[in-house]
Write a structure and sequence with these properties.
about 400 residues, alpha/beta, Rossmann fold, Udp-n-acetylmuramoylalanyl-d-glutamate--2,6- Diaminopimelate Ligase, Chain: A, domain 1, 2 domains, 8-stranded mixed beta sheet, 5-stranded mixed beta sheet, about 45% helix, about 20% strand
């Protein structure tokens, strides 16, 4: 059975944001093919998280642009600056694919591009069928026709009879009425749904009947599909409205006063404040009412990032030697992962205290351990208020 993907694209009045949409789609297709966790498959291939795949795709695009401008080698901190990640993150990502640079010359750009390509693209390209040859659909066809060696659109569908049996950017268009049967014949298991809200459910049902197992939906409505169907929502309207809202606030994001809500905006704001703060974790702990159970490095512990969560796979991707881990998972495993990633400080929440083995391990590694009586969200809120007060 061939690896295939269906892309259902709605007609938009302009190509606003299509570069971002297409980029995310490429990384998402690769991540759904390669898997979601950093583990070996039965075939021996390394499976990484979706975020890692997305960063790899970004590295390759940046390296291709740098090569075109004459750059032959690059250091991890230089690539990190272009990719807006840490140098440690770049090194960890490239270690996953078995590529390492030279201390004297950094990474060879050509070799790095080839290594990332071998990892992302695999031995078989992903075949894509596109439904909806409007403005966005045409932009997607043009983009994949020129940019992506891993994904190829092999068929397009549209309800406009004038497009039937025509070529758009080199791709044959078919009547949308035949989508279900052709998707089934191709063995498609992944679909991207970007049709208008009023037709999204019918399109999703048809894709499921055709054998699709995963759907990426750009439609601004929830889909009611069987529990075993994976659905990833990408709501452009909500994204634009969120951007407009925070633009009106001048970029300020105030955390909710209670424990409800999405923690990600607060974490991003916290990291912005941390980057401009001179406050050490020891002082921060005292200010928010957290108990320090294991001291950090002599001279104080500084951080510039926060990871709030319990997923070890995400921690492996996000953590660095400047990260404060906020978690309610007080386990030796979490300490071992923190040790591996050189995490300088951990804040356990809900009053959960680490046991003697964990404290001893933390002391051996000079990892600062503190315990907050509040939950994850409330603790991050207290840190936010502390840093905001310091700034003012």
């Amino acid at each position: 059975m061939r690896d295939c993907v269906v892309l259902c694209a709605t007609v938009l009045t302009s190509s606003l944001g299509h570069e971002t949409i297409v980029t995310d789609f490429t990384a998402f297709v690769l991540s759904r093919t390669n898997g979601d966790d950093t583990t070996p498959t039965a075939r021996g291939a390394i499976v990484v998280s979706r975020k890692t795949v997305s960063r790899m795709s970004r590295y390759r695009r940046l390296l291709l642009a740098l090569r075109a401008s004459g750059v032959e080698s690059i250091y991890s901190h230089q690539l990190a600056r272009h990719a807006v990640v840490s140098a440690a993150q770049v090194r960890r990502d490239l270690m996953v694919i078995g590529y390492s640079g030279s201390p004297n010359k950094g990474y060879d750009v050509d070799a790095c591009i080839d290594s990332i390509g071998s990892f992302l693209d695999g031995s078989a390209r992903q075949e894509v069928a596109l439904v909806g040859v409007g403005n966005l659909g045409r932009a997607v066809l043009a983009h994949f026709g020129e940019e992506s060696p891993a994904v190829a659109i092999v068929a397009a569908f549209d309800v406009d009879p004038a497009l039937t049996d025509t070529l758009v950017h080199g791709v044959r268009c078919f009547d949308a009425a035949g989508m279900e049967s052709l998707v089934r014949d191709l063995g498609v298991e992944i679909a991207v749904l970007a049709v208008p809200g009023e037709t999204a459910q019918d399109a999703g049902d048809a894709l499921v009947r055709a054998g699709v197992k995963s759907i990426i939906s750009f439609a601004p409505v929830p889909l009611h599909l069987p529990n075993e169907i994976f659905v990833e929502y990408m709501d452009i309207t909500a994204a634009l409205e969120s951007a407009a809202y925070f633009a009106r606030l001048g970029g300020r994001e105030e955390p909710p006063a209670n424990g409800d809500g999405d923690i990600e905006p607060m974490v991003r704001r916290l990291e912005s404040l941390l980057a401009r703060s001179n406050m050490k974790l020891e002082e921060l702990a005292r200010t928010i009412g957290a108990q320090i159970v294991s001291p950090g490095k002599p001279g104080g512990t500084s951080v510039a990032k926060i990871y709030a969560g319990d997923r070890v796979s995400d921690l492996l991707n996000e953590a660095s030697d400047k990260t404060l881990l906020v978690s309610n998972l007080a386990s030796v495993q979490m300490l071992r992962v923190a040790e591996l990633m050189d995490v300088p400080g951990i804040c356990f929440v809900n009053g959960v205290e680490p046991d003697a083995e964990m404290v001893q391990l933390a002391r051996e590694n000079d990892t600062l351990l503190m315990v907050s009586p509040q939950g994850v969200f409330e603790t991050c809120g207290l840190i936010y208020q502390c840093l905001e007060a310091e700034r003012n």
